[in-house]
Design a protein that fits this description.
This protein has a single domain, classed as TIM Barrel (Alpha-Beta Barrel), CATH 3.20.20.370. Helix 2 packs across helix 3 and helix 7 packs parallel to helix 8. Helix 6 links the parallel strand 5 and strand 6. The strands form two sheets. The protein has a seven-stranded parallel barrel with strand order 1-2-3-4-5-6-9, surrounded by four helices. A two-stranded antiparallel ribbon has the order 7-8. By secondary structure, it is α/β, with parallel strands linked by helices.
């Protein structure tokens, strides 16, 4: 029998319907006040996750809310690590007040893409996370520098793929500036998720077949039709005994 699939969503970002998404997903990656979010949104997302039995993760990105953390910043690796740790600390403080715990870390946006390409950056960030937060898992883009380094450091790893994003042949996310980089049709999103779950494959933007070990799928809350996509993916996976 195939391993069950975890559905995760990026929440607390001020986009989409977080409460409705929390009734669908099994993991919630909560923005920590860097690219988006504040104490109020963090608390609401944590409470919603607790009410629905959803695993809680920290979702830090570049502290660049004007660009929603989607612009690459040229900063020393140590400065980036310190931004990440500060954001985890913000979420952890709110979580402690709500008697909740943070199970994993998932990087956001441009920072996630950079860490997926750059082993040195991933090492600096994840070594810091492992030191300050022993036992915290890394939700990492499958087959990327993120996953390789997290495993080398001996950290718990959750390999991830995206429901609504196109991939390059090397297994990285296609730039949002490219046509077709975001899947907007529900049928296409469901098909990508089922192929991943059942066959361990993703079809790249050029038609190449990528093998993937991902068992967590990200559903973006700010994609047009996000809730429709999420419900359809959940229902398709459940109908096949994969959730």
């Amino acid at each position: 029998m195939a391993e069950l699939i975890d559905l995760n969503a990026d929440l607390g970002e001020g986009t989409g319907d977080d409460l409705a998404m929390l009734e669908i997903v099994t993991s919630a990656s909560i923005a920590c006040g860097g690219h988006a979010g504040n104490e109020q949104t963090m608390r609401a997302a944590i409470r919603g996750a607790l009410a629905n039995g959803v695993r809680i993760g920290a979702h830090p990105g570049f502290e660049d809310p004007d660009n929603f953390g989607r612009r690459r910043l040229d900063l020393p690796n140590e400065a980036i690590r310190d931004q990440v740790l500060a954001q985890i600390a913000r979420l952890a403080a709110v979580a402690a007040e709500e008697a909740a715990s943070i199970a994993y870390l998932k990087l956001h946006g441009a920072l996630a893409n950079m860490a997926a390409e750059d082993e040195a950056l991933s090492h600096t960030i994840f070594a810091g996370v492992g030191w300050h937060h022993p036992g915290m898992a890394i939700l990492a883009l499958a087959a990327s520098a993120q996953e390789r380094i997290a495993r080398q450091l001996g950290l718990p790893v959750i390999a991830e793929a995206y429901a609504d994003r196109a991939y390059t042949p090397d297994g990285l996310l296609a730039a949002r500036s490219l046509p077709g980089s975001v899947l907007e049709e529900t049928d296409a999103v469901v098909a990508q998720c089922l192929r991943l779950a059942e066959q361990g494959e993703i079809v790249a933007i050029d038609g190449a077949i990528i093998k993937s070990n991902a068992r967590s799928i990200c559903l973006h809350g700010d994609t047009p039709g996000a809730l429709e996509h999420a419900r359809a993916v959940r229902d398709a996976l459940k109908s096949r005994g994969l959730m």
